[in-house]
Amino acid sequence: MIRALAFVCTLNPSPASSSSQLLADQVLAELGDLGVQCESVRVADHDIRPGVATDMGDGDAWPGLREKLLAADIVLLATPIWLGHPSSLCQRVLERMNADISETDEQGRQLMYGKVGAVAVVGNEDGAHKVSADLFQGLNDLGVSLAPNAVTYWVGEAQHGTDYQDLDERPKNVAATTRTLAVNAVHLVRLLRQYSYPPSS
User: Fold this and answer.
1) SS3 assignment, position 17
2) What GO molecular-function term can you cite, just one (predicted)?
């Protein structure tokens, strides 16, 4: 069984509508069609403390989410663009993941080795490539692998007020890109299960 975990990094807690949630759900639907067991976590619904430790104590929600992360094969970060950057909650997820950057398995490999990363970005103007590049670098630093075309995104015209969730239908290019992301991510998970990375020590 392949497992996927989506961290939806909208600033809006549930039950507010969210374009990031919508695009993440569309990615998970494609993965589900490929037999992947999927779970979505809206980060704003959880008390994830700032810091770079695995447990910040006093009701910190990250330890439980970290268990889900460690059990996942595919990790999706879904974020809006704010001031040209991923949301602050997306950055916080990466910072909390960073607590494990020096942790290794019995063969000296980072704990995230064998996991496949993916990114979903929404915004009202250009910036999806910049945001995905930032997230790709963070995921790579943590030992997560990236398949080709590991991002799907939608951005509206500059200074336009339409949100992704307000569109009458999903654009064909977004649908195709989302499908490609899912297919390539699952393919890479299967390859890494068959041919794992060599020992690092």
Assistant:
1) coil
2) oxidoreductase activity
Those residues whose C-beta lies under 8 Å from the C-beta of residue 10, and which sit 6 or more positions away, are 16, 18, 19, 20, 21, 42, 43, 44, 78, 79, 80, 87, 89
Question: What residues of the chain score a pLDDT lower than 70?
Answer: 201
Q: Return the CATH number at 115.
A: 3.40.50.360
CA dihedral 152, 138, 83, 7 (to 10 degrees): 60
On whether residue 201 sits in a domain, the answer given is no
Question: What is the DSSP secondary structure assignment for residue 55, as one 8-state letter?
Answer: -
Query: What single string gives the DSSP state of each residue in 135-157?
Result: HHHHHHHTT-EEEEEEEEEEE--
Does residue 80 lie in a domain region?
A: yes
Let me know if residue 69 belongs to a domain. yes
Domain that holds residue 179: 3-194
| SS3 assignment, position 148 | strand
Instruction: Tell me phi and psi for residue 20, to 5 degrees.
Output: -65, -40
Q: Dihedral through CA 108, CA 136, CA 115, CA 52, nearest 10?
A: 60
Residue with tokens 């890479």: 188
> What would the pLDDT profile of 80-122 be if each residue is shown by its tens digit?
999 999 999 999 999 999 999 999 999 999 999 999 999 999 9
Give the Cα separation of 56 and 66 in Å (integer): 12
**Token pair recorded at residue 125:** 């103007």
